[in-house]
Amino acid sequence: MSFTEKIGQLMQRPGQDAVPNDDVPWWMKYAGRGLGTVGGAIAVFLGLWVATGILFAQIDCLIAGIWQMLAGFVCILIEAPCCCMFLDFVQNISDFMERKPYYYRGALYIVISLPAIVLCLGLGTLFGSGLIFATGVIYGMMSLGKKASVEEMRSKATGGAEGPGGVMPDAMPAHMKSSLVDNAQPVAFSGSPFDSNV
């Protein structure tokens, strides 16, 4: 058993299948979960920092800071429910999001990261909400799935008309023939365009 399999068994949730049923690489799953957890914690801290803008009568920065703290808390709630064991509903929310496709999580993180940046553009909101946004981008990439092999892409590009060894057959299928130049006349030699007597 490899080291990554041992770590995977330790990180496994209760009731989770031992064999993953998707084709997302293991490093991308851990990158999304790790960035979501660390980014959420940093967003909460920086949200508190941005909310101190109320001392300078910046109401929009107060609202942005509170929003960023809530977005960071939601990110931690979904990605690392072990950090919020004192709340009894956390595991239900985390299990609900685990059953959904990856693009749900990606869209959620991208949507909740934008209002803080729009309300109070600064280094604190840009970095804190930017980490949540990056987590959403990683989950969006995970939802795209595994890239196809070269043979599959070539087969799709040619419409499945490839022969063995990736060579196109001599006779093209009817759906691939072009009817643009059906009436084209053959090119013939007509002589030189200038008078040869001069």
UniProtKB/TrEMBL annotation:
Membrane topology: Multi-pass membrane protein
Record-annotated membrane-spanning stretches: 35-59, 65-90, 102-119
Cellular compartments per GO CC: endosome; presynaptic membrane; synaptic vesicle membrane
Record keyword Transmembrane helix present: yes
Subcellular localization, as worded in the UniProt entry: Cytoplasmic vesicle, Secretory vesicle, Synaptic vesicle membrane; Endosome; Presynaptic cell membrane
InterPro entries: TVP18/Ca-channel_flower
MF annotations from Gene Ontology: calcium channel activity
Keywords attached to this entry: Calcium, Calcium channel, Calcium transport, Cell projection, Cytoplasmic vesicle, Endocytosis, Endosome, Ion channel, Ion transport, Membrane, Transmembrane, Transmembrane helix, Transport
Gene Ontology annotations of biological process type: endocytosis
Main location: membrane
Domain of life: Eukaryota
Protein family: Belongs to the calcium channel flower family.
Assembly, per entry: Homomultimer. Associates with the dally/ magu complex.
Protein name: Calcium channel flower
Source lineage: Eukaryota, Metazoa, Ecdysozoa, Arthropoda, Hexapoda
